[in-house]
Design a protein that fits this description.
The chain is mainly alpha-helical. It is 71% helix and 0% strand. Helix 1 packs antiparallel against helix 2 (34-54), helix 1 (15-29) runs parallel beside helix 3 and helix 2 (34-54) runs antiparallel to helix 3.
Length: 98
């Protein structure tokens, strides 16, 4: 008698969702490149969430985590970049004192 397998196989995880989560985490950790990595993570997260919904794949939680960390990294390093640009602008524009 053959043994029957009654367990359902889990759905395949979306590669875009995994990529968005990894890039989102890296956007928080890596300075200077975090702004650009965050933007890429946001793009992959939206594509990953659409892919999980349309193709019944797993990884929606990873896509949400990638979106969240991507937004945090983009905002964090965007603010830091603005402060650096303003500091450089004011450092160059002020005349030297004697």
């Amino acid at each position: 008698m053959e043994e029957q397998n009654y367990y359902a196989t889990p759905p395949q995880t979306s590669g875009k969702a995994i990529a968005s989560m990894v890039l989102g985490i890296l956007s928080i950790i890596i300075p200077y490149l975090g702004f650009f990595l965050g933007i890429i993570a946001i793009v992959f997260a939206t594509k990953g969430m659409n892919e999980t919904a349309e193709q019944k794949q797993g990884g929606r939680g990873m896509a949400i985590a990638g979106l969240t960390t991507g937004i945090i990294g983009t905002v964090l390093y965007g603010i830091i970049d603005v402060f650096i640009i303003l500091a450089l602008f004011f450092a160059v524009s002020t005349p030297p004192t004697i």
